[in-house]
Amino acid sequence: MTQIGLIILGKESELTIVDAADRIVTVKMPIERMAVLNTDFAEAIAALDERDKVVGVTTTLTGYTQFFPELSTKTDVGGWYTPDIEAILAVEPDTVCVYAKWPSTEALDEKLPGDINIVRLDFYKAPTQREEMIQLGYLLNKRERADEYIEWHDQYVDEIYDRVAEIPDDEKVRVFIDAGGGKEFGRRAYSTGTGMHDLCVLAGGKNIAEGYVEGYADVETEWILDQNPDVIVGISYKGGYETDDETKMGEHYEEIRALPGFAEHVTAVQNDSVFIMSNAFAFAPHYPAPLAVMAKWLYPKRFADFKPEAIHQEYIDEFLGIDFDVYEQGVFVFPRR
Question: Is the pTM of this model over 0.85?
Answer without folding.
Answer: yes
